[in-house]
Amino acid sequence: MLNNVKSRLFSGKKYIILLAMTSLLFFVACEDRSELTAPSAPNTGSADFTRFVSIGNSLTAGYQSGSLYESSQVYSFGKIMADQVGVSYEQPLISEPGIPGKLELHDFTPTIIPNPGMGTPTNLAYAAPYNNLGVPGAIIFDLTDETDFATKSEARGNPYFSIVLRDQQLGASIIKQALNLQPTFINLWIGNNDVLGYATSGGSSGTDATGLLPTDPAVFGFFYNAIATALTDSTGARKIAAANIPDVQNIPFFTTIGPKIGVALIDVIAVNPAVVGLFYQKNGEAVASSFATPEQLIAGDILLTLAASPYASLVGVPTGKFYREVMGGYVPPGIDTTQAFGLHPQNPWPHPYTLDATELALVQTHTGAFNAVIKATVDANSDTWVLVDINSYFAKLADGGLIIDGINFSNSYILGNTFSLDGVHPTTQGYGVVANEFISAINGKFDATIPRVNVSTLPASIGLGNATP
């Protein structure tokens, strides 16, 4: 997730996101939060949080708005949970504005740009493995891989393996570092990047052996079962909460640009009936063989990625900006940048920013297969494992939204309060929502009464109110 999102979100100096300010989302679903009317003791039931460890990727790390930085990390969903049960929880904190500099909303256009600064790790000398072992960019293979961390960071262009894991003496892999803490409770949320790497690149790259497709389901199952075997305590004392993988159609990285272009195209077609829709490249082609109608874009049958924000406003303009900025000036044979961008087959919407129907079906098939592996693992260890169904919860956020502690949450970009400026990772309050889903599952499974966090007490989510006039 990290490498594919970052490589495109940071491809230009500015990110112009055209928001339909007149279209407000009305939320029809509510949650009963009556348990918050009185404080409750952190009774963890049969779950023991004395030594609490979280394993995963950027979603576990507390990554937000394209970066890992302290003011977000201190509200990672694992840290929120640790605070609710009153246990210590050490994390690999990084000073502001994070690594890399986080995306920031600067004006009411709105204009979104990366902070030009760079943070540094502040507690690398901590003498034990961190309780939060979320490594941004990690795929399932990385949990058991024992490659030297510095070597791996350099080879993958990902500094987080060195920052989070630091020293092989603390454990030669993520799983071994977790076990060296002798954990009594573990959060496990892994597999997102095994499908997101393919999806966020528009089907241009992947995490399987060829580097072109999502991780093979059989390979995913092999590694997940190996991880489960390593983590499961034969005595039954250690408990594990395992989350599944959300559908990419329910995160704003894939649901923001397409519908807005679709709405704009309706007006264009009304004036110029010769325009049939948005011509887009399929994998391996230059000149487009297909186009998406406004209705298909609005419905999400063809997904356009948020990474394409710098080019969304150029649809209909004769331009070769994409080829200058992303392709280093290389224009493939057959492309004619004097044609209207996106509205002519010889100057189509670029493939790296498009997830077409075939690619989307592949993503959904792999997501379903991965989630089936996760559920089967939980079912096979039902005495000590519990499933956290984040997939279903994110679907609720996409289907009308939820009102939680008086705050409207949806999958709408910026205005939905759930997702940060990168369109993939939660806001601070969004991480509170995730923490509460873990807590609810744990309470239901292990006869606990851990209080859910009141998300309205967390720092406000990113929105237009945070912009600098």
**Protein structure class:** alpha/beta
Helix content percent band? 25-40%
CATH superfamily of the largest domain: SGNH hydrolase
Gross geometry: globular
**Rg calculated over all Cα atoms:** 22 Å
Per-chain topology:
Elements lengths: L1 H8 L5 E2 L12 E2 L21 E5 L1 H4 L8 H4 L3 H9 L17 E3 L5 E4 L17 E3 L14 H8 L3 H6 L8 H7 L4 E5 L3 H8 L16 H15 L7 E5 L8 H4 L1 H15 L6 E3 L9 E3 L1 H6 L3 E2 L4 H4 L8 H5 L28 E2 L1 H24 L4 E4 L1 H9 L3 E3 L2 E3 L18 H19 L23
Parallel strand pairs: 2-14, 3-6, 3-7, 7-8, 8-13
Antiparallel strand pairs: 1-5, 4-5, 9-10, 11-12, 14-15
Descriptive notes:
There is one protein chain. By secondary structure, the protein is of the alpha/beta class. The chain has 2 domains: 2-253 and 357-466, Rossmann fold (3-Layer(aba) Sandwich); 254-355, no CATH class. It has helices spanning 2-9, 58-61, 70-73, 77-85, 149-156, 160-165, 174-180, 193-200, 217-231, 252-255, 257-271, 294-299, 309-312, 321-325, 357-380, 390-398, 428-446, and strands at 15-16, 29-30, 52-56, 103-105, 111-114, 132-134, 185-189, 239-243, 278-280, 290-292, 303-304, 354-355, 385-388, 402-404, 407-409. The chain has a 5-stranded parallel beta sheet, with helices on both faces. The protein has a 3-stranded antiparallel beta sheet with strand order 1-5-4. Helix 4 (77-85) crosses helix 17 (428-446), helix 8 runs antiparallel to helix 15 and helix 9 packs parallel to helix 15. The radius of gyration is 22 Å and the shape is globular. The chain starts with a helix and ends in a 23-residue tail after the last helix. The model is unreliable at 1-39 and 463-469 (pLDDT under 50).
